[in-house]
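sorry for the late reply, my laptop died twice this morning and i had to redo everyting from scratch. anyway the thing you sent over, i finally got around to it. pasting the sequence first so we're on the same page, its 119 residues, then the predicted structure underneath. double check i copied it right bc i was rushing
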Amino acid sequence: MASVSTQDGGSAETGTNVMIAGLAFQVFTLTLFMLLCAEYAYRVVTSGRQLNPTFAHLRDSKRFKGFLGMIAFATVCIQIRSVYRLIELSQGWEGELIGWSPPPTFFLFIFYCVASLDG
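ok and here's the structure:
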């Protein structure tokens, strides 16, 4: 929407506002998801109820705990990126953040570190 209106000589403000609203909704829903997951995990850990013993070996395995950890890590990374993009787009198309990008090697470093955790 934003690029089409600028090509027609119009303003990109409506399209930009739609993108900001979408990003804000994404940040809100992902925050809600993270809070609900944290509450559920807290309740499971502190409930004192006996969990199904059939799956005890799965719950206690390093692979399963690593899986849950990586899902949490990925969710936090998506949230950080979404908040960054929301702030970036809120400054407008000529803002300070939209013209700056972290070096690509920074992101490669993170992926290499995560990949090296696979044992």
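The two ends are 46 Å apart (CA to CA).
thats about all i looked at so far, will dig more tmrw
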